[in-house]
């Protein structure tokens, strides 16, 4: 097997860290799950793709409609130039719930003032695994 194929295989397996007790099914690594969601949100912000953004949240996310309107207003008034994040304090809450702290750094460009702004926000985030996969159930500043 060449090095590229081996690296791809290893990258695909890194989302798992152990086997579920009493089975041969792997347990997903919550850090990997959170990183996948964060990457999707990052991409949605850069492309201003509200459907991709909403797909990261459960339908029961608190005030999802209000948060969606605020996100659309942000995209209307600013260009998102850069989005970075740092994930920490990742832990399982149950076999279908996990939590993590995420610090978002978002560079905005205001068309009206021609100014750049760096916004930094930290969220305590709770993930839930449902029929549609892992999604954000709750987050608090």
Task: Summarize the SSE layout with pairings.
Elements: H1 3-13, E1 16-19, E2 26-28, H2 30-47, H3 50-54, H4 64-77, E3 78-94, E4 97-110, E5 115-130, E6 133-140
Antiparallel strand pairs: 1-2, 3-4, 4-5, 5-6
Summarize this structure briefly.
This protein is α+β, with helices and mostly antiparallel strands and 141 residues long. It is built from four helices and six strands. The protein has a four-stranded antiparallel sheet. The chain has a two-stranded antiparallel ribbon with strand order 1-2.
Descriptors for this entry?
single chain; 141 residues; alpha+beta; two-stranded antiparallel sheet; globular
Largest sheet: 4 strands, antiparallel
Give the helix tally: 4
Distance between the termini: 46 Å
Fraction of residues in helix: 25-40%
Rounded to the nearest angstrom, the radius of gyration is: 17 Å
Number of strands: 6
What does this structure look like?
- The chain is of the alpha+beta class.
- It contains four helices and six strands.
- The strands form two sheets. Strands 3-4-5-6 form a four-stranded antiparallel sheet. A two-stranded antiparallel ribbon has the order 1-2.
- It is globular.
């Amino acid at each position: 097997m060449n090095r590229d194929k081996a690296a791809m295989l290893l990258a695909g397996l890194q989302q798992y860290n152990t086997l579920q007790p009493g089975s041969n099914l792997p347990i997903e690594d919550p850090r990997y799950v959170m990183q996948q969601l964060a990457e999707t949100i990052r991409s949605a912000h850069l492309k201003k793709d509200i459907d991709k953004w909403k797909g990261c949240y459960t339908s029961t996310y608190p005030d999802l409609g209000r948060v969606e309107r605020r996100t659309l207003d942000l995209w209307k008034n600013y260009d998102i130039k850069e989005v970075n994040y740092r994930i920490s304090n990742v832990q399982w809450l149950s076999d279908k719930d996990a939590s993590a702290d995420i610090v978002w750094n978002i560079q905005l460009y205001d068309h009206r003032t021609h100014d750049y702004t760096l916004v930094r926000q930290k969220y305590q985030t709770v993930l839930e695994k449902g029929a549609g996969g892992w999604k954000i159930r709750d987050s608090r500043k």
